[in-house]
Specification:
Number of helices: 10
Helix content: 40-55%
CATH architecture of the largest domain: 2-Layer Sandwich
């Protein structure tokens, strides 16, 4: 297997901590690594992969937290305590940089420990690369490539999940539909590059207007949706007003005279996906009929 390039952050030595299982691991190292590789090949989920890896690595090093940082973001094991000093390892394969694996450990790593971790890293890198490739493909399948928002496929899945939870737990939620007024004229008069800039700006407005519990989606064109995890018309009105205010304050939106129309509705446990979508769409139609650049409930 290819060697794994190591970049290690050192701290002043206080000795070396070895878990009680280290001697057993040392006597069975080849079979332990083979067992690790077999288990790593059972999943393409990054968090699950790290959890499997961590169970084996703890036979060599006593760490409080384990984290992997890549271009996809940060993944870590459950209950990872990252308050201890970090030891960072660059993981590369075939001249491809996968990311950094970071151990958080109270004690410094000796050369012997580093060497043993390299053996584990050699087992980890291939399953890790497969998991990263899978995550990228999954992201492309669920994300809008222009704005980075969730796409219509992801909307359908999350809406179905929320409706099921609403039926079981009687926790209503809201659906908000939005589109851009005068967007067609922007594309026709200024070209699709400016149109894309406007869509990206509006996506940023939406992300700045919601809470962490809410989800934003782009269906395509200038059609957007927000699932609001709160069963109050007041919450919808606050978010709608915030969106319209930020659109009005945007220099780009003002330059091309783009505003937004918004329709929203609340769910009930008797709703199906078509019911809630049809009501929100009627709210959007009411906003258009009222002169645009406004929000209406249905």
């Amino acid at each position: 297997m290819e060697n794994v390039h190591i970049l290690t952050q050192r701290i002043s030595a206080r000795g070396e901590f070895l878990p009680f299982s280290a001697e057993h691991y040392r006597n069975n190292e080849p079979s332990a690594i083979h067992s690790l590789l077999e288990k790593l090949q059972t999943t393409l989920n990054l968090e699950e992969l790290l959890t499997i890896y961590a169970a084996h690595a703890k036979q060599i090093i006593n760490f409080s937290g384990l984290q992997f940082q890549s271009s996809l973001g940060v993944a870590q094991i459950a209950d990872s305590d990252n308050s201890k000093p970090p030891y960072s390892f660059d993981l590369d394969i075939n001249n491809e940089h996968l990311g950094q694996l970071i151990y958080f450990c109270q004690y410094p790593l000796s050369g012997n420990i580093e060497q043993k971790l390299v053996g584990l890293h050699n087992a980890l890198v291939y399953p890790l690369r497969n998991a990263l490739m899978y995550s990228r493909v999954l992201k492309l399948a669920t994300k809008d490539t222009l704005t980075g928002l969730n796409n219509r496929s992801q909307f359908n899945d999350i809406l179905a999940q929320k409706l099921e939870r609403c039926r079981r737990q009687h926790r209503p939620f809201s659906l908000m539909l939005l589109d851009l007024d005068n967007f067609k004229q922007v594309n026709d008069n200024y070209g699709h590059k400016i149109g894309d800039d406007v869509l990206q700006e509006f996506a940023n407005v939406l992300c700045s207007s919601i809470r962490a519990t809410d989800s934003v989606f782009r269906f395509g064109g200038d059609e957007f949706a927000v699932l609001i995890d709160d069963p109050e018309f007041t919450t919808n009105k606050v978010i709608a007003q915030r969106v319209m205010r930020l659109v009005a304050e945007s220099n780009l939106m003002k330059q091309y005279q783009v505003t937004t129309s918004i329709g929203f509705t609340l769910t009930s446990s008797q709703d199906c996906e078509n019911d809630i979508f049809a009501r929100a769409d009627k709210g959007l139609y009411k906003a258009k009929a009222a002169g645009r650049n406004c929000a209406r409930a249905y």
